[in-house]
Amino acid sequence: MKNLHFELSGPAGKPVIIFLHGFLGSSIDWDFAVEHFKVNYQCLCVDLPGHGQTHLTDPEHYSIPNTARLLIDLLDQLQIKKANLLGYSMGGRVALYLAVHYPSNFEKVILESASPGLEDEIERKKRQEQDEQLAQVLEKKNLEQFLREWYHRPLFKNLLGHPGFERMFQRRLKNDSIDLAKSLRYMGVGNQESLWLRLPEIQLPVLLLAGEMDQKFCDIARRMQKKNPGFRLAIIEDCGHTIHFENEKRFLQELSAFLLS
After folding, report:
1. Which of 56, 65, 82, 153 stands 20 to 30 A from 102 (CA)?
2. DSSP the chain
C-alpha cells in the first residue's frame, strides 16, 4: 500500500489548509494550528513518508516527486479540488515542488524555513554524501542519542531552552530510525531537484517565513523573493528555524493574515 497517514479536522465545505511537517516531525506537530483554524477551515495534516504513521516499503516512494504525487492522489481521494498549502523545512521543500508542478491544486502557499535546493552540482553531491553518512548513523545509533546530537546543531539552538522542547523530543522518539534513514537518503536536500530557476514561474500567492536568528534561511528567503518579487516575505523576530514552535502566536498571526488577504 502507498498510503499517507493523515488527520482531517474541521467542517466540510470550508477552505482547506494542508500542513506538511519537517524532518523528524509528524502531523501532530500542527495540533496547535488545527485548534486555531478548525472552525473556519478544514485542516489536513499529513505524515510524510518515514514519519509518524506513514511507513512505505519502497524507498523510491520517499523521493519528493513521488511524495508529491501521493499528496495529489490523497487530495483526489478526499475530493479536494483546491487547498491552501503550508510546509515547514523539509515539508516546505515538498510544498514548493507542489507549487511548481501542480499549481492548479492550490490557492495559496506558505513556506516556513524552506529552500528551493542546491544549484551547484558539486554542493549537491557533497550534501548527498553528508545525508548518506547521517542515514548510516541513524541505522546504527540509538534514536535518542541521534536526536540529542541533532538538536545541538546551530540551526536549532533556540529550541533547547524552550519550555516545550522535551515534550516535542518525546514525540520524535516515536519515529522509526530505519524509515528516517530512508527519508534522509531520498528526500534530503542533496537529492532534491533545484527549483531556483522555476521560482519566477509561480503565480500563486506565496508567503515566505524565516526567523530573524536563522541567518541562512533569511538569506535564502530574501533571494527567493528577488527571483519572484510577487512573493511576500515576513522575517519573524526572536525566532530561529522553527518559527511555529518558537512563537506560535506570531506564526498564527502571519498565517491568518495571509490566508485572509
Report:
1. 56
2. -----EEEES-TTS-EEEEE--TT--GGGGHHHHHHHTTTSEEEEE--TTSTT---S-GGGGSHHHHHHHHHHHHHHTT---EEEEEETHHHHHHHHHHHH-GGGEEEEEEES-------HHHHHHHHHHHHHHHHHHHHS-HHHHHHHHTTSGGGTTTTT-TTHHHHHHHHTTS-HHHHHHHHHHHSGGGSPP-GGGGGG--S-EEEEEETT-HHHHHHHHHHHHH-TTSEEEEETT--S-HHHH-HHHHHHHHHHHHH-
Sort residue 255 into left (φ over 0), alpha (ψ -120 to 50) or beta: alpha
Q: How far apart are CA 95 and CA 198, in angstroms?
A: 14
Q: Summarize pLDDT for 118-159 with one digit per residue, the tens.
A: 999 999 999 999 999 999 999 988 899 999 999 988 888 888
d(CA 38, CA 85): 15
- Grid coordinates in use for 208? 515566505
Count of alpha carbons within 13 angstroms of residue 194, beta-carbon side? 12
Indicate whether this model's pTM tops 0.90.
yes
CA-closest candidate to residue 199, choices 176, 222, 180 = 222
187-235 pLDDT per residue, tens = 999 999 999 999 999 999 999 999 999 999 999 999 999 999 999 999 9
Distance CA 107, CA 81 (A): 10
Domains of the chain: 6-118+193-260 (3.40.50.1820)
